[in-house]
Structures are given as C-alpha cells and as structure tokens.
Design a protein that fits this description.
Alkaline Protease, subunit P, domain 1; mainly beta; 2 helices; three-stranded parallel beta sheet; ten-stranded parallel beta sheet
C-alpha cells in the first residue's frame, strides 16, 4: 500500500472514530443530556433532557408547556418516552409514552400510552391507552382503552372501552363499539353500525 492510500485510510478511520457528539454538532442536530439525564436521543430542534431514556425526533418534540418552542424534554416527564413529530409530547407529564405524529399527546397526562397520528391524545388524561387516528382521544379521560379511527373518543370519559370506526364517543366503562358516530352513555354496552346511541347499562345494538 503506497503512502497516499495509507493517508486516505487513516483519514477514513479518523472520521469513523469521531465521537457522536462531534458528529451531531457538525450536522447541526444537537443531542444534549442535562441535569443528570442519560440515554437520550434528540434530532431536529432543541433537545435538552432533564430525565432519562427518551427519544425525540422532530421540531420542539417534548418541549415544556410554558413555552411551545422551548427545549425538548419536559422536566415534568418521567422519562422512557418516544416522540416523533413536531411538538409531539410538548408539555406532557408521564412516562412510557409513545407519541407518533405532530401534536400527539400535547399537554397530555398519563403513562404507558400509544398515540398515533396528528393530535392523537391532545390534552388528554389517560393511561394504558391506545389511540390511533387524527384527534383520536383528544380531550379524553380514562384508562385501559383502545380507540382506533379518526376523531374517536374525543372528549370521552371511560375505562376499559373499545371504539373502532370514527367520530364515536363514550361516557362510561366497559363499552365496545364498531362503526361511525356511535354514542355510549352508560356501562357494559356494545354496538355495531353507524349512528347507534346507547344509553343505560348492559344494552346492545
């Protein structure tokens, strides 16, 4: 191997051994852990974490609710969160949440949720819940729910409920609905089809 090729090889090896922090700084994509935080990844926007084990991808993901354009990594969050999308998890309080989509779980409170699509779980107070669809679960309250579809369970209050379709709401526990525009008011009800309105307990349609 001639001298020129040796120099080229050394240059390549030198690039490969540059620290990840230097690489990120060179690419102008900051990855920062502060306040004793560890094991965090932040891409696009400011990523200044005060808790641990977070992944934030997107402009202002996880920013504190006092300033929607402040640094990512809400100091109130417990950690172990994944946020992908602009301001996803902004102002949220909780741990173990996965928010995929712009504005998903913004100002949300709760743990162990999966939010998928634009504004899913927006300003909700939920735990152990899956909400997939734009505005699914927005403004809702409850635990252990599955809400699949556009605008499902918006403003709803319930536990152990399943809604599949779109624009359905629930106010009660142990309700199961499939279709568009289903409305539950009560407990332990089920409905299949569009525009069913169930009031009371242990009913079906």
């Amino acid at each position: 191997m001639n001298h020129a090729k040796k120099l080229q090889l050394l240059a390549v090896l030198g690039v490969l051994t540059i620290s990840s922090a230097s690489l990120v700084q060179a690419a102008d994509i900051p990855v920062v852990s502060s306040g004793g935080a560890t094991y965090n990844i932040g891409l696009q926007g400011w990523s200044s974490f005060t808790n641990s084990d977070n992944v934030h991808l997107g402009g202002q993901t996880g920013a504190a609710n006092s300033d929607p354009y402040s640094h990512a990594g809400d100091p109130n969050a417990k950690g172990n969160n994944i946020a992908i999308g602009r301001i996803a998890l902004n102002g949220s309080q909780g741990g173990g949440n996965v928010a995929l989509g712009a504005k998903s779980f913004v100002d949300g409170k709760g743990d162990y949720n999966f939010l998928g699509n634009f504004a899913a779980g927006f300003k909700s107070t939920i735990s152990d819940t899956i909400a997939v669809g734009y505005f699914a679960g927005a403004g809702s309250e409850g635990n252990k729910n599955v809400w699949l579809g556009a605008s499902q369970a918006g403003g709803s209050k319930g536990n152990n409920t399943v809604l599949i379709g779109s624009n359905s709401t629930v106010n009660g526990d142990f309700n199961y609905g499939m279709g568009h525009g289903v409305i539950f008011k009560g407990d332990k009800n089920s409905a299949i089809g569009a525009y069913n309105k169930i009031e009371g307990n242990q009913s079906g349609a």
